[in-house]
Queue: 3 jobs
Job 1
Amino acid sequence: MWGTATICPPRPAALEQIEMAKDTTTYWNPLAAEHGGRWAPVEGLAGQVEELTLAADPRNGEVTRLTRFGPGADTRDVGVRCHDYPEEVFIVSGRVYDEAFDTWLEAGYYASRPPGEAHGPFRSDVGCVVLEVSRPTPAREAWPGPGI
């Protein structure tokens, strides 16, 4: 029942041995001003687009991250992107235009992209935050072009 404290039973010993594939962390607000220093510029798009890795698995390359487009951001200089792995994106706030789909993506939009699906370039008039879950497969050869 929501709103009431619940005590979880002790975990069985077998669960203590299970490793999480990605980093784990307790609740925190990555959008809060005090965490602004954790954001890093996206290569080739400094001053326009930043990213913040929330969790990563160094063994398989899976990453959960936030990407933040500033107002006026335009990625046409880096062009269309595609990857050899699936990727999920969810628009958290603001809006961003995806030229490959000729569509404005606003808060609440979601996509599950198959490997090789072209996307971008992107531009944002008011700024945008995107939640991205990427699932690279190290054994595959790279698809032409880096991803965003």
Job 2
Amino acid sequence: MFTCFILFKTEYKEHLYAIILTIATIISMVLIARSHIASIDNKEKTLSSYTKTIIKYTWIVISLFSYNISRALISITLDIPFDSTNDRPITFLFSFFCIFWIYYSLYYLFLFVIFYLPEFVNFSRNKKSKTKFYPGTGYHLSVILPSFFIYIALSNVLGINIPNILKTGTIFTLRYEARDSFFCHNRYMFLTEHPDARFILISEGSYRALIPHKDDINVFRLTCSDKEPFYSLNGVVDKDSLILTAIKERANILINDLYLK
């Protein structure tokens, strides 16, 4: 029911619901992981201790990896220099999701190991008794398999909501790191046809214009000039878009040639 409610709200693209329900989903996933580890741990809390140690020593590596991946993604998406992404709030937002996803994937890798290779970890709750290793077949069927299904369901929910949550987070963070006006020809200006546009200063006379369009944000290069309207806008596009545009142009030329014949 929780998953269906998230999907229902996501269908209408209500960003507030997407934020609240995505946060609730992340909290649910963390609680599931903690309760599962506690249920298979022994009285000495050996597994919990190992888990804390692993997180402690991998935190720096995973954080640096996520941070640099986020910086590269933002640099490519916004078409801004890599060095200018180091202290932007949107960088930390992307890094958080990346760190969470890596640790949660490691948790389910652990589930995979104990499902297929339970002999590598002694889950016996009483080491003095000659009981069989824990978890057994019943535990696999009652806990681990449902956990995999929950992981698949919640992963799909996050996969659907992450674009919305990141777009909403981007719009929110841009309020604090981008202006609503730009400076060209010795005066401040704004785009009358796009009053909600935000502008990131790259260098003197060069900006990135972020223009909301429906449920997306279009990125443009804004360059100051000496002729009216004293600026120029050029959309930021990737190689795939350029190839697709070239194919459409050639197709139109071919259709026109065939029509003339």
Job 3
Amino acid sequence: MDALTSSLAPLSRHAERCAEALTAVAAAASDPQMRAELAHRANLQHCAATELAARAGQQGAQAHDVPDGHREIPPFEAGEPGLLEYAAQQAGRAAAAYGALLREPLDDPELRLLLAHYYRGATELQRMLEQRVADFAPSYESGRVARRATPPLH
């Protein structure tokens, strides 16, 4: 059970980083409906982080402590699109961490179900954020085609 406990603590930190990224992008979101959705998803990630930390035997600030120099700071200067991309990366990392633990043998069926729920939520969140990033920027390919179609200036 000690190996499982040591695996849950990093999962909790992944969920907390994802929540922090979602909170940052929610604050910068221009669409009020998206802002509410992102704030709700951030709250869900905070809850997941707290639950995983409790299962790992960590309490309070100890659960989310990150060694000095290892805390990632959201790219606030990049604006909403950059924050969305950062949040999508954090959701992807959380999903990958959940998936890795789910591939391990787990004796606790309740924990397996909880991790599967968090995994599904993180993957859906990642897809939603990536779609939102794609909505912000025109496709690179379409931009390239449009430039080629323009005759050269002489």
